[in-house]
Amino acid sequence: xxEVTQIPAALSVPEGENLVLNCSFTxxxxxxxxxxRQDPGKGLTSLLLIQSSQREQTSxxxxxxxxxxxxxxxxxIAASQPGDSATYLCAVMNSGYSTLxxxxxxxxxxxx
Amino acid sequence: DAGVIxxxxxxxxxxxxxxxxxxxxxxxxxxxFWYRQTMMxxxxxxxxxxxxxxxxDSGMPEDRFSAKMPNASFSTLKIQPSEPxxxxxxxxxxxxxxxxxxxxxxxxxxxxxxxxx
Lengths: 112, 117
Fold this sequence. Notes:
The complex is a heterodimer of chains A (about 110) and B (about 120).
Chain A: E1 4-7, E2 10-14, E3 19-25, E4 30-38, E5 44-51, E6 56-59, E7 62-67, E8 72-77, E9 86-94, E10 100-102, E11 106-111
Parallel strand pairs in A: 2-11
Antiparallel strand pairs in A: 1-3, 3-8, 4-5, 4-9, 6-7, 7-8, 9-10, 9-11
Chain B: E1 5-7, E2 10-13, E3 19-24, E4 31-38, E5 42-50, E6 53-56, E7 65-71, E8 74-79, E9 88-95, E10 107-108, E11 112-116
Parallel strand pairs in B: 2-11
Antiparallel strand pairs in B: 1-3, 3-8, 4-5, 4-9, 5-6, 7-8, 9-10, 9-11
């Protein structure tokens, strides 16, 4: 059974810092890995999707990497802003399609 | 498109009552998912449908939970009878399977916060 772990559970940084969120998974047979953002009281929004054959994806200040063989992914946020404050969840789509297994998330607080 | 729509957004009920949560997926999507989110367990998949047919309900916690999808634009998740431990945020999500499944993602609704007293 796929298990996804995210470290740290919470992170507080001052505005402007670069930061890294970590995600690990136990079964490397995946279709893709996705990073989602969740704001309080809201649903999840997909930020980046990395296909199993890819190593990284970039969107603006966000960069996600994938090392499938070691079962790890990182989300790099450059020049953090208070508006980045949210919970970030990592999810893997297992090779049986459709099912996403989520980590418990990293709660990020960026202070002005 | 309005995105995935869920109702109600908040539900407070007493133990033993029946609770019905509703979801309207994005038009044209052929997969629909029900998730439950709690602090302790995170986000868990309860059940998912493909073309209105339940595919995997192994995540449904017990017989008190049931889900239906009578047509492509509507699904319900019912809890009967409800218990305090059912208190959680319930999310509905939908997706469209493409020929290149590796880029498929799920689109989430805003969730229903359920409190069972």
